Amino acid sequence: MVVLRLFIIVMVISTILYISISFYSRSKRRAKLEHQWRADLRVGDREAWLREELEKYDHSLKRRLILLVFVLPMAFLAFVSIMLYVQNFM
Hints:
Elements: H1 2-40, H2 46-58, H3 61-65, H4 68-89
Helix pairs in contact: 1-2, 1-4
């Protein structure tokens, strides 16, 4: 029962961290793209170009690595839970 409660707490904290890191990372990427637009002296529809580049970013490895915010704590919690079970009940 304690492990389930801990699991829920870790999921809530991980979700908050994931959302925060995602927004921060996306905003930094958008700022970098806007700077690149000005530096390259591009012409055309800036918003369409930004949308296209951010779509590419959404499918990049860097964006997917943020999911480790969920995976690593859950793997650690599972490992500790298994070790506690083995120590106490086997």
